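Write out this protein's structure.
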Amino acid sequence: MENVLVAGANGTTGKKIVNLLKSSQYFEPVAMVRKEEQQEQFEKENIKTVLGDLEKDLSHTVKNIDKVIFAAGSGGKKVVEVDQEGAKRLIDASKDANIKKFVMLSSMGADNPEEANDLKEYLKAKHNADEYLKSRNLMHAIVRPGSLTNDMGTGKIELKSKLNKQGSITRDDVAQTLVRSLHDDAAINETFEIIQGDTLIGKAMDGKS
């Protein structure tokens, strides 16, 4: 079993990721949360936690960790401090700790933030974090979903390096794609976009192995 640090574990998508990892036969989740009172909900389920603030030193959060999923977000409040610099801080800590793989939850539009009408600052921050991850010589996968919905997951997506169209996708299916991306034989140093589609996630990901 590999220990997977989930940054942003307390978020809507983060919780789904933690639950998927918990039921996985390959991975053991470690929920990274910012406040002590956020730990209890995970510890009740026998899920390990670690306290970590993306605006501070993170070297302790990656001890005994094999892989990382970055699913944290500031919700638009601190895009530079959290979505950009916080991500960079965790990337650096992961690199120093010889983490085997870093899976980044990014966003469609992060490849070209200047073209965006709204969320430009957020997309710019995500773009900078993604580019930084690519530059650090760390095995990674960068997953860029369309707009997120809270509908039930279908287990099916459309996946391409660049989709050239807008679309939405459920948080369930995003979480599944991120967890699938953790595997050593999947999405090696790949960046790709996903929206709702007709192809099973595992099969869509096969093209990325």
